[in-house]
Amino acid sequence: MTGKAKKTDIMDTAARFLEHRMRTEQEVRRRLEEAAFEEEEIRNCLDRLKELHYIDDRAYALTYLRRSLEKRRGRCRIFRELRERGIERNIVQQAIYDFEDEEGTDLSEEEFRNAAAEAARLLEGSASTEKERARAGRRLAALGYETALIYAVLGQIGQDTL
């Protein structure tokens, strides 16, 4: 097989992988490694895909952040999931800055609103017993909210019900 045909194969493989949704550089790299392409070919392909903006970890992180906030996920979970997808720590932090700048809000405020709404949903119509509040706290923790934020939200709900 000629070098040009091989290059087309790797680009085709990458394009098919990218056609359904955004992917991180690490996800594309893994797919190409699984397809047994050589490291130099993979590196060249990834460079070309970044050049064409088919791979953009910063845009991926910002999109993922927005979608996760819509699902009322907390910063810890979002951060962990992005890191698992191969997004570097500084890119995640830049996505947070971009979000705050574009939305004109602080992510902490957005997180508090989301956590409060989720807690209110979980405790809706209940007498808000300690057991129910503990269950709501565990759910908020599973969604990736920090412990201090969970206590603040549950404390506020406790005051509102008094």
Describe the structure.
With 162 residues, this protein is mainly alpha-helical. Helices cover 75% and strands 0% of the residues. Helix 4 packs across helix 6 and helix 8 runs antiparallel to helix 9 (147-160).
Key traits:
9 helices, 162 residues, single chain
Percent of residues in β-strands: under 5%
Structural class: mainly alpha
Order of helices and strands: HHHHHHHHH
Number of helices: 9
Largest sheet: none
Termini gap: 76 Å
Rg calc = 21 Å
Q: What gross morphology would you assign?
A: elongated
Mean pLDDT: 89
Helix content: over 70%
**Unreliable sequence segments:** none
How many distinct beta strands?
Answer: 0
Question: How do the helices and strands line up, and which of them pair or pack?
Answer:
Layout: H1 3-18, H2 25-34, H3 39-51, H4 57-70, H5 75-84, H6 89-103, H7 107-123, H8 130-142, H9 147-160
Helix pairs in contact: 1-3, 2-3, 4-6, 7-8, 7-9, 8-9
Summarize the structure.
The protein is mainly α.
